[in-house]
Design brief:
- The chain has 5 helices and no strands.
- It starts with a helix and ends with a helix.
- The chain is an all-alpha fold.
């Protein structure tokens, strides 16, 4: 369940990045041209100064990060006592289903091959 939550967050971040890389308003291309020109160091320090001025004017602006910490993920999945509260997984129903199918249809397949399907 933690993996699914992480994958969902990564997929959402990936969608945001795709829209940035499409660069429909051409701002990214202009910015790259500005950074690669002959005055790249002066343009960098101008941008740095503008960023500092902005945060001096608005010091309470929240900073957004993309980092995902596993401790922040809360999983609410009920486990039975037989599963020792998530330490083990009860696959008896899957095994019984496999045994019943294997008697009827599958002769050359073991349980692990069945689970891979």
């Amino acid at each position: 369940h933690r993996v699914k939550i992480l994958i969902d967050k990564i997929t959402a971040a990936n969608g945001d990045l795709i829209t940035l890389y499409e660069d429909k308003d051409r701002l990214f291309k202009e910015e790259l041209a500005h950074m690669r020109g002959p005055q790249m160091f002066s343009s960098f320090y101008e941008s740095l100064g503008a960023t500092r001025d902005y945060f001096y004017k608005f010091p309470s602006t929240p900073v957004t990060t993309v980092s995902i910490k596993p401790e922040d993920i809360v999983v609410n999945v009920p486990f039975s006592g037989e599963e020792i509260f998530g330490k083990y997984m009860d696959l008896n129903s899957n095994f019984l289903e496999f045994v019943n199918i294997s008697k009827k249809y599958l002769k050359d397949q073991d349980y692990l091959q069945y689970l891979d399907k």
